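It is worth pausing here to work through a concrete case rather than discussing structure prediction in the abstract. The textbook approach is simple: state the sequence, then state the predicted structure, then interpret. We follow exactly that order.
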Amino acid sequence: MARSEADLLHALTLFLNGDDDAVWIITQHFVAALLAARNQVITENNLEDPSAMNESDLLEMSRHIAVIMFGFRERMQEIEDEGELADNIAWQWERIFIDQTVRAIEAGKLFGYMFVERVSGQVWEKTWMSRLAHNTCAVCEELHGMTIPVQQDFLSLGQILILPNDRHYAQTYGNLSAPSVHPHCQCWLMYTRRN
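Step two, the predicted structure:
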């Protein structure tokens, strides 16, 4: 069920007060965004039933939603703990909500291409794309242009990425299958069909 922006903003306020119903409303929003993106990819590739999911699909989707909700809750708590001015907090809450929604959409696209690959036998690849602006982080810059099979991860849990200037990045929270290295990430995935 689609919810209005006012409903979602109200849910954000309730969420900060520990309301379990608000957690459910926000989770539903992220699931709906993920599924809509997934189904769009499947439909664009002319496959019949985008709703068909096996147990593996459901487990993977649940894992991504859990990561999204964990990141959402953690970032909301950080802002609340900082005790900034109310107007600034409201803006930051909304920004976090938008960031996590974008992550849900990106995860949905990834699931869509994984489904297309499994059902059609086509082979797809994903390429990490970064804005490459003055404020692009070193990890995203290093991953920019990396192309791998759609089923693989860019980084595995515990993997160390060597960055310029003898710096390192350790993947400390699950496998990195799509852009989610840091808050406000502006990276995305580009998908191409391999011949």
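Step three, interpretation. Residues 123-195 form one domain. The helical segments are 5-16, 20-44, 55-82, 86-120, 138-143.
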